[in-house]
Write a structure and sequence with these properties.
Number of domains: 2
Order of helices and strands: EEEHEEEEHHEHHEEEHEH
Largest sheet: 5 strands, mixed
Distance between the termini: 43 Å
Structural class: alpha/beta
Strand content: 15-25%
Helix content: 25-40%
Bound molecules: zinc ion
Length: 236
Amino acid sequence: MSDKKEFNLTPGENEQYKPVKADITCRKCGKKSTLTLRACVNVSLHPEEKEQVLDGSFFQYTCPDCGEIMSVTYPLLYDDMAKALMIYLLPDQTEEALAKLNEQQKNWSEEMLKAAKVCTMRAVRTINDLAEKIKIADAGLDDRYVELSKAFVFAQFLKQKPGCEVVQVLFEQQNGKDGIVIFSKDGKQYWVEFQEGLYDEVVRMFEDKVGKTSGTEYELIDAGWSMKILANISNS
Ligand SMILES: [Zn+2]
């Protein structure tokens, strides 16, 4: 853990991330169970849980009666204190949930707000998006410039494969190289490398446009975000 950041992300009384109870019905045998869902995963305290989040097993539930494995997605804060990274998974009505979440910050202690200022605070919609943010941080990259780089690489890809119906585009390193993996509707996957120097060029081009730091709010940095940035540039 880094010793440079002098803050403590332990929530105060109004900021407790309490576990929540949820009912689940097994899709195979119909057995009803009550789950205790943890509202926060702190990978500084529990490093083994990072892998579980990355491979999705953190979200898996096994029916005690029949052994059916189901994925349970719910609002979860992923907290990596060492990387000063806080990512909120908000799977349902993400925009509304995000607005509510940021609204709650008026109840935060001074110390939490101070910590938030030096943290990268993100909201994501899916487990895959969460894993992607973690991988981007592990690669030592800024997800805003990665999102913009993705837009360029993806546009190139579509030129070569016009009409390809794409369902998802995610950052992914292969053999130590940065790139994106593109999932098509017909189940195919394509990995495309970031051209040499692309990321650095994107940083140079957009440094002034994306702002130096985010505030204390959780932000949704996704393809929609990068499209807005790119649209502003072509309009100006
Ligand atoms: Zn079952």
